[in-house]
Amino acid sequence: MTEETSGSSGLFDKYLAENRIFKDREVLRHSYRPHILPHRKPQIDQIASILAPSLQMETPSNILIYGKTGTGKTASVRYVGTELEQVSARRGTICRVVHLNCEVIDTQYRVLAQIAKLILGEDDFPSDRLRTHIPMTGWPTDQVYAELKNQLETVAGVFIIILDEIDKLVKKSGDDTLYNLTRINTDLARSKVSIIGISNDLGFKTFLDPRVLSSLSEEELVFPPYNATQLCDILQQRAAIGFIENALDEEVIPLCSALAAQEHGDARRALDLLRISGELADREGAHTVHVEHVKKAQAKIETDSMVECIRTLPTQSKVVLYCMLLLHRAGQKIFISGEITRIYREITPLLDIDVLTIRRISDLISELNMLGVISTRLVNRGRHGRTKEMWFDTNTDKIWEVIMEEQDDRLAQIDAELLVTMLR
User: Fold this and answer.
1) What pLDDT is stored for residue 235 in this prediction?
2) Is 238 annotated as a binding residue?
3) Whole-model pTM?
4) Is 75 marked within a binding site?
5) Where does the Cdc6 C-terminal domain lie (predicted)?
């Protein structure tokens, strides 16, 4: 083995040296659940008051909770749920909280099967032979529902079912799951079920049947965004545990808070900024996190989120974006929808995909604007009517790289340089 590849080469020694920045970086991640949630006491108290009847073996009201990403919805509900289970255990009653992420578990079958799996404790069945395991596929949905009811009745308690990102479930699978869950109590004699739906999208209710909406939204809570001062308090709380003393310049937390407050008061964004700032400083071998590290972290987050956004775009959106990139590379810093449509119609025959209407292309342009990939504005051209102008606010080299690496071979076969030359 050569010296360069030897396991004793000390490749990681400098990273395993005494920490200069972090004491416990895990507390700066979204998954960490603090014992105290700053600036969410009113919402926590309200959730607790709604769920309190479960401690008397009564059915709590169903709840719909709204708020933008990073406003503490899930953390608050989990906090109340943990407290509820602890009080229930002390009182000798059965009250369980089941949490499902509907972005992952997004069909009626999987939701019902997962609830059945999670409600069962180790002491509910003296022998595992008495417990029926629901496979994740293969049964008729009616059979899964019937087995879920049997298991609820066997355990005999109050069950709080949290459907996080409930809008994803409804948009993909309709409202049949909610219809069944909000009516399950009529089929139960020994157990009670309450639903808590959490969503970032207030508009998802338009997808619900009025009867489902009436049953589900017995109580509604809205979590407001955090302001910069509140975000400061949250970061101070985490920093006291996560960073070594004096590792942060005094301007770092206020700057992270101010930047995140501009992003709709997102606590997750604030935590990411603070953590990544510390990681960048640590990699540099610095002993203190400075404002410059925060600025670098902001640029990194924006680039990373933009790349991920572009990678997950549908094919037609990528083709429309490709047309814009061609115009930009041809020297047009501002372009109009008509030019994009013209290029789109020239290259789609080469790609063997459906040709979209002008209206649909305009919709895709609006979606790209909403995602922050491009910027647009409506311009009034007098008797020629109004048109939409658009441009890139960020460096397009990374966008071009992602488009070309993510697309199949069809776009790569187009002579982009020839098209750019023709457009100049």
Assistant:
1) 96
2) yes
3) 0.72
4) yes
5) 321-403
